[in-house]
Specification:
Helix 6 crosses helix 7 and helix 9 runs antiparallel to helix 10. With 283 residues, the protein is of the alpha/beta class. It contains ten helices and nine strands.
């Protein structure tokens, strides 16, 4: 049976634990999560173990990145299962603060990112989101003081925002992106996939197929607008309500006119029933 990782829930306890981890100048990696861990998260932990000697996983469902109409209250919370998964991976430390630890009475500061945070993708539909993400990740970086931090590429705009923030604010953290982990049929693993009905789960694979089809056409030399229109039609015909389906520069997230403006990333967000899914692939 795997030994459970140390769990800390206060900032003083976290500081003591990190000092112990850093004994003998060990390098540390942070994997920030909101819990409800799946194989995609496990892949982040495994990458962290390859990049550093000690691994910290944070589990904190961050209320400031949810709008009042979103699913903060119903977001899946699976603590016992999460700890078991992290124990099996021999994680060294779990940072599990509650809301009052992260945002104590009188908390009045926040990070307001620009650049990739105002690219007109997620920010167009969730204008509150990246301010909440940047503030909590900035706190996690200063609390945990990791050498590297691992984020999944599924949340691609978030990865770009966090990378820019760490660089701009000289936080001393190297942000590393990890490839999206998919189910066998191509659906990107996500904690929110549990919201899908059996029928919706089958339909959800359309997002990946549509991105692949548009990417194939772009690689074959099709004009960008026409190639993207094919994927957009596939998604909407399957019953999704589409927020965006766009080809963007993979580093800046600026719009592109053709693959010659690349590297190019196709990004999508769409609702299926009550569930909002996001995904992306490189071209």
């Amino acid at each position: 049976m795997s030994r459970s990782p140390m769990v800390v829930r206060t900032v003083p306890a976290l500081r003591r634990a990190i000092e112990a981890l850093r004994a003998r100048k060990a390098t540390t990696a942070l994997v920030p999560t909101m819990g409800a861990l799946h194989d995609g998260h496990v892949s982040l932990v495994r990458l962290a173990k390859r990049r550093a000697q000690k691994v910290i996983v944070s589990i904190f469902v961050n209320p400031t990145q949810f709008a009042p109409t979103e699913d903060f209250g119903s977001y899946p919370r699976t603590w016992k299962s999460d700890v078991a998964k992290l124990a099996a991976e021999k994680v060294d430390l779990i940072w599990n603060p509650d809301v009052k630890v992260m945002y104590p009475d009188g908390f009045a500061s926040r990070i307001v990112p620009e650049g990739p945070a105002i690219a007109g993708l997620e920010d167009r539909f969730r204008p509150h989101f990246f301010g909440g993400v940047a503030t909590v990740v900035g706190k996690l970086f200063t609390q945990c003081r990791p050498d590297v931090a691992i984020f999944g590429e599924k949340d691609f705009q978030q990865l770009r925002v966090v990378t820019q923030m760490a660089r701009d604010l000289d936080l001393g953290v190297r942000v590393i992106g990890s490839r999206t982990v998919r189910e066998r049929d191509g659906l990107a693993m996500s904690s929110r996939n549990v919201y899908l009905s059996a029928e919706e789960r089958q339909t959800a694979t359309t997002l990946y197929r549509a991105m692949k089809e548009s990417a194939k056409r772009l690689k074959a030399g099709d004009e960008l607008v026409a190639a993207m229109a094919v994927g957009r039609e596939m998604i909407e015909s399957a019953g999704f309500v589409l927020d965006y389906f766009e080809a963007r520069h993979a580093e800046t997230l600026a719009p592109v006119a053709s693959v010659k403006d690349g590297p190019v990333r196709i990004l999508v967000a769409a609702k299926l029933g009550k569930t909002r899914l996001i995904d992306n692939i490189g071209v």
